[in-house]
Design a protein that fits this description.
Blueprint (H helix, E strand, L loop, with lengths): L6 E4 L3 H12 L5 E4 L8 H4 L11 H21 L25 H6 L2 E6 L2 E7 L18 H13 L2 E4 L3 E7 L3 H8 L10 E7 L5 E11 L2 E7 L3 H10 L6 E4 L4 E7 L3 H6 L14 E6 L2 E6 L8 E7 L3 H12 L5 E2 L2 H10 L15 H4 L16 H10 L4 E7 L11 E4 L2 E12 L4 E8 L9 E6 L2 E8 L9 H4 L1
Helix pairs in contact: 5-10
Length: 482
């Protein structure tokens, strides 16, 4: 038996065997594999047939595609069958409802059709009258289309109300809180009473968070980000903890609502003694709303005039009563996440794990505009971000108007130009405000120009698309900031 080797791979499962195979393909000969039993007799055997051809991570999707092709290669080399049969599959999902907020029964009574995020029940839209309270799954425009259009019109034409529970929320306190945030976050840390938007970067400059920082006091900050990323974010915060800083996950303790639309200011003013007219865009203020102690932020993911209103979870129903009563004269309408995703497309706003995620950099996605290169802090990812600023990104996130039929872009559809695939879509949908199908995706920077004619492959059909750079709603930001 050999006593020395250049590489010893311990464990003859699918990973170990694959590592050894690929090393030999690269020309390495002084290699060996150690296995205590038969090859692939451990956890690999238990996962036999566990093939997946779709994945939300582009790198993993590429690896999975390569793996499937590899089995054909092995059969050609060895002349033996691997026993792989390409078949379909069905994924079954655990019991409903999942975790719920205090609004679950109220919204259910109002016709809420529920989805879920990170184990949380989230209202997708609200059915009315005889409309079904179950959405039939479809790759095409579903039976929720009319309900979503109704909610979008209510926001753009008046005022809508939506829960903010599905934001991850963190309380950062301590004498070194500001210094710590300046190191953890690439963007500017705001002054007291203000909020800012910032990417959080890995050392390699990849996006690991898309945050709002609200300065509530000299040593007190609230962070908001994706609800589904809270476990990862808390691990990151813990790994980078410092003396003089305390970070607490308050995602399920602090909840509330956002109200958005041209009548949003009137609704809020009707249930508070504070002068809401003095709140500027990106202001944050402690405020009593309907006798509930709230944190109010002048910002909205809808891209409209709007306010995020946070309160203790125990007070959410009382806050709802106050806002509902104030909103009745304005026909305030509850809206769900489907309408939210349509509204954000009007402004080309990105979403976490769609446009923003660890596969991408700030410069590729446009979030580099929020990086504070001028601050005198060696924030995490600074070196990589500065290098990309100097060389330019390899791809750029852009928006498209699509001549769709009855199906819109979902994500990862190829983008074609002059017969070649030049990029892929990150997300899309129907803008009920503009009455257009919209998509976002990555293309080479040299081709990211207004009016470029392309094709996007949707459900096997090539659909014409035009690259657009002007938002479909409030292009100058006058209503959102006014």
């Amino acid at each position: 038996m050999k006593t020395t080797t250049r590489v010893a791979v311990i464990g003859g499962g699918v990973v170990g065997a694959s590592v050894l195979y690929h090393l030999t393909k690269l020309g390495w000969s002084d290699v060996m594999l150690l296995e205590r039993s038969e090859l692939t007799s451990g956890s690999t055997w238990h996962a036999a047939g566990g093939f997946h051809t779709l994945n939300g991570d582009t790198n993993m999707a590429a690896l999975q595609g390569y793996t499937i092709r590899l089995y054909k290669e092995l059969e050609e080399i060895t002349g033996m069958s691997c026993g792989l049969h390409h078949v379909g599959g069905v994924t079954l999902a655990a019991a409903r409802p999942h975790h719920t907020t205090p609004m679950y029964d109220i919204f259910t009574g109002m016709g809420a059709v529920w989805g879920q995020q990170f184990g949380l029940e989230v209202a997708n839209y609200f059915a009315r009258g005889h409309e079904p309270t179950y959405e039939r799954p479809s790759f095409r425009r579903s039976d929720a289309f009319d309900a979503i259009a109704r909610e979008v019109r209510a926001v753009r034409g008046g005022v809508g109300i939506n829960e903010v529970q599905n934001f991850g929320k963190y309380l950062v306190t301590g004498p070194r809180a500001r210094d710590w945030l300046n190191r953890i976050m690439a963007g500017r840390v705001p002054a007291q009473g203000r909020l800012s938007l910032t990417p959080m970067l890995s050392p390699k400059g990849k996006l690991i968070g898309d945050f709002t920082i609200s300065c509530l006091g000299v040593q007190t900050f609230q962070l908001t980000a994706s609800y589904g990323a809270q476990a990862y974010h808390m691990r990151w915060f813990t790994q980078h903890e410092e003396d003089g800083v305390h970070v607490e996950n308050i995602s399920d303790r602090r909840t509330g609502f956002q109200i958005a639309g041209p009548k949003a200011r009137e609704v809020l003013q009707a249930c508070t003694l504070d002068d809401v007219s003095t709140m500027k865009f990106l202001d944050v203020r402690q405020m009593g709303v309907g006798r509930v102690a709230c944190l109010v932020q002048r910002v909205s993911y809808t891209g409209d005039l709007g306010f995020e209103i946070y309160c203790d979870a125990m007070a959410q129903r009382r806050l709802w009563t106050a806002l509902r009563n104030a909103g009745q004269p304005h026909a305030m309408t509850p809206f769900g996440m489907r309408a939210m995703m349509s509204l954000r497309l009007d402004k080309f706003f990105g979403a976490w794990l769609l446009e923003f995620g660890p596969d991408y950099t700030a410069a590729q996605t446009g979030l580099d505009r929020f990086i504070s290169f001028g601050k005198d802090v060696d924030f995490i990812g600074r070196t990589a971000a500065e290098a990309e600023r100097d060389t330019g990104p390899a791809r750029k996130l852009v928006a498209f108007e699509v001549e769709a039929l009855d199906a819109d872009v979902q994500g990862y559809e190829p983008i074609w130009h002059a017969g070649d695939v030049i990029g892929f879509c990150t997300s899309g949908g129907y803008s009920h405000h503009a009455e257009k199908s919209v998509a976002q995706g990555f293309v080479p920077p040299a081709q990211a120009r207004e009016g470029l004619q392309l094709e996007i492959e949707i459900l096997g059909q090539m659909r014409p698309a035009t690259l657009i750079t002007t938002p479909l709603f409030d292009a100058d930001g006058a209503r959102m900031r006014g």
